[in-house]
Amino acid sequence: MKRSFVLSAAMLMLAGCMSNQQASRTAAPAAAPLPDITIYHLEGRRSERIVWLMEELQLPYQLEFKRGDILGSMATIKTINPGMPVAPTVKYGDQVIVESGAIIETILNRHAPGKLQPALDSPDYPYHLIWIHYAEGSLAARLFQDYRVWRVQPPKQRSPLVDSEQVVQFAEDYLGKHPWFGGAEFSAADIMMKFPLDVATGLNIVDGGPFPNVAAWKAKIEARPAYQRMRAKARPDGLVGSPPALPQHAPAGPRNSSPPSQ
Ligand SMILES: N[C@@H](CCC(=O)N[C@@H](CS)C(=O)NCC(=O)O)C(=O)O
Questions:
Q1: Is 49 in the pocket of ligand 1 (CB under 6 A)?
Q2: By three-state DSSP, how is residue 151 classified?
Q3: Which residue's alpha carbon is nearest to atom 16 within ligand 1?
Q4: Is residue 168 part of a domain?
């Protein structure tokens, strides 16, 4: 009894010296064999997340898109996935799967256990999961909502109901205290967050100036070899067929001065 206490105390101390992801690697189950993976892609769009994930993990995959031809790439996706033709669409063995977050979690949990996510018992784990879901659930949803409204009817003054700044500010504040959206270490949450944060400034939905932590994080991301390999393979000619950027912003109106719209 006494000996096993000493042993577990020693193991705890050892785990304390390891990073969150190392600790989870120690306990991780064996990786399942990877089925054939084909990523159906549109240049500059969310399917880059899956290419980047596979490059980070150094796992094999096929990449399908028609270079410089977004409509042609989309026509291919429609033949594979007529019910929900979106990028990413992924052929995973004999299954066709969508939703970048679900695709990433499937690949990580089955085929790369312990990698690119904090250990389940790490304090970083809930934050990692928040950003995995926030990327689509709150951030991309609000950015595109504002973008579409703005294009139909540009406001003279930023409405308090236009809240893209607020959703980007939440990310900015977190990055003021943590180096990555995964917390102490880079994780799949960072992969999820890059696309909407690029859209936010790239389409001029928010100005980049007030978000220096996000800008510094993007620079760190863009220096990663796996990110650069993804760009070379999945976006060889730069952005193709991007929607038009908004004009310079109308001045911000008073924030939080109206009751929530929903
Ligand atoms: N929540 C989905 C969004 C997928 C999505 O809307 N992808 C865009 C490209 S970035 C698309 O295929 N749009 C085409 C369309 O909606 O017709 C995900 O994260 O995978």
A1: no
A2: helix
A3: 86
A4: yes
